[in-house]
Amino acid sequence: MLRIEDHDRQRCRPEFERGVLDDLEWLGFDADEAPIHSYRATSTPHPQRQSDNALRYETQLRVLDGKGLVFACDCSRRMIAERAGHRPAGHGQTGEIRYPGTCRTRALDRDAVAGRRVRMERGVEAFTDLRMGAFADDPSQQCGDLLVRDRHGCWTYQFAVTVDDMVHDIDVIIRGEDLLASTARQFRLARLLGRTSMPLVLHHALLLHEDGAKLSKARHDTSLRERREAGASPAALLGEAAYLAGLQPSAASLAAADVPSLFVRRP
Length: 267
Description:
The chain has helices spanning 14-27, 54-66, 77-83, 139-142, 157-167, 182-192, 224-229, 234-244, and strands at residues 70-72, 116-118, 125-129, 133-137, 146-149, 172-176, 200-204. It is an alpha+beta fold. The strands form three sheets. Strands 1-2-5 form a three-stranded antiparallel beta sheet. A two-stranded antiparallel ribbon has the order 3-4. Strands 6-7 form a two-stranded parallel ribbon. Helix 6 links the parallel strand 6 and strand 7 (200-204). 19% of the residues are buried.
């Protein structure tokens, strides 16, 4: 399934989506559900484009609100950091600052404040990562009450993907290990929404700079588009990616049609 996760309307642009679609087509990939061509009609709402499905998220927010779990919040990241005695994370820093529950009892006017948080009470969410093993995390201690809609009215990543994974019955999630901390809070949120069976998860290793920082445009790292324009072939890039991921013993060229064979369990 191809999902366009453009929940952050402050940062997402139509040209970014077109770039993703163009790159996937060039590599030779298409989705079994929601194929690429279905996104090209930009005037038509799409069930797998998050910005087209605000009603889906509103509906699930009402489910949580009906359980008394939702409250309005107007805190910014800077305000939370200052109250916690921390400076906002700088370049290359990933330390998370726990929300201290500032607005839990403020009873802010919901018509005047767009931000919404969901109460995260104490309790452990246990899960097993298929690569990294067993974990048992308490979202109330990791992040505190979870932001599901920000001050600008944008749905957050944590909420949108949890709702979509439940609605679309996603049963396997593969993503980078930088998102490992998201698992417990997303599972907690899914349970609060009524999901009874959690998906399998695998968090893969990341390609990093020598100082441990992730690849980024800010550090002028080469993009897929730039490699393509420099003359690299789809098969060469896929072979390199498969090698770096530990899925094949060398960087030998790999056709898109042969990628599924890399994930077949062998005796």
